Amino acid sequence: MPIRSEWKLAREGWTLDTTVRLLQATAFNPVITLPLFLAAKYSSHGSLLASQHGTAFRHLKTLLALGVLNSVGRWLDDKVLNNWKSDEWDWKKEVVVVTGGADGIGKSIVFLLAEQGIKVAVLDVQKLTYEAPPSVQYFHCDLADKSSIIKASSAVRASLGHPTVLINNAGCARGKTILDSTENDIRLTFNVNALSHYFLAQQFLPHMIEKNHGMVVTVASLAGYLTAPSMVDYSSSKAAALAFHEGLTAELTTRYKADKVRTVVMCQGYTRTALFEGFAGNSLYPETVAEEIVKAVLNGRSAHLVLPESSWGIVPKVRAWPVWMQYGLRKGLKNLMNSWKGRQVDQPSEAAQEKAKPKGVEESAVLVEQH
């Protein structure tokens, strides 16, 4: 499954992203508009055409200005995020940890990395749903349990050496309202989607900081910017993951003086995985999300990724809208989770918590069907 060419039509078909990319490559591309502008401005034939088509020439100047602003913005994004410094990566020596790599987006990430011959450690509570490529090793890990994270991290170091890339990909969702959510539901969601990022960073980040070389990838979600009914805990945990990424990026330079340790965040929309089966919304293929993550990893530079790309102009900006528009939008998302039936994976730590609960008379004597 090689990474798809930028010039191929997306798996999702012709989308708004396709149109935006086409416009960026043509109408808003200074490589195209600047020569046209210079020809119109400084050549006799071009000046004649510009005078005859004044409206078209004004549009050309507008396209050039917008294209230059966009290019400068992208350039500044890259330079500032990477502290104006470059680094070298030897992918024959790097070790990548992928959480939740047994299936879904994580599985695609693992295969794309393995195709490059990169050593990959998969940390997951469930066993691999595929035959591991030669450079891939599986380590059982309950990401909701700190002790399990510590044990698995030690096993990775003993087997593969110190990881230089950590991809926090694992996630879980319960799909319940606030009042229907049990304590275990809430704790599991936050443990896997947010707190595990802290505990894994505490395991692998010190060596990256010591060598001033490494990368931490946070797979968050557009839900971290915009929540909806029946997914409040999920959105809250993804907002926490996004804040973790932003804070880590700042701390690496200001507190740890590790200005070459990179950070990448992916905020993707609804993706066609077992976790969100039945979700009512336009969907991405897991391979599409995985490819963007792996391209950022192989590029070896910090990045803030959003998919679909066109959603960057809307979803993260919602909090800047007037309050009545914000609340109206959230209420309008009331049906997103009505048909949701995402897969649930048994967590050993969750089972242990249930056993440890004291049983009252009613609890031990009556079986209640949960809906």
Automatic annotation (TrEMBL):
Keywords: Lipid metabolism, Membrane, NADP, Oxidoreductase, Transmembrane, Transmembrane helix. InterPro entries: NAD(P)-bd_dom_sf, SDR_fam. Residues 346-371 are annotated as: Disordered. Its main location: membrane. GO terms for cellular component: membrane. It is found in: Membrane. Residues 352-362 have a biased composition (Basic and acidic residues). The keyword tRNA-binding does not apply. GO terms for molecular function: all-trans-retinol dehydrogenase (NADP+) activity. It is a multi-pass membrane protein. Signal peptide: none annotated. Catalyzes the reduction of all-trans-retinal to all-trans-retinol in the presence of NADPH. Belongs to the short-chain dehydrogenases/reductases (SDR) family. This is Short-chain dehydrogenase/reductase 3.
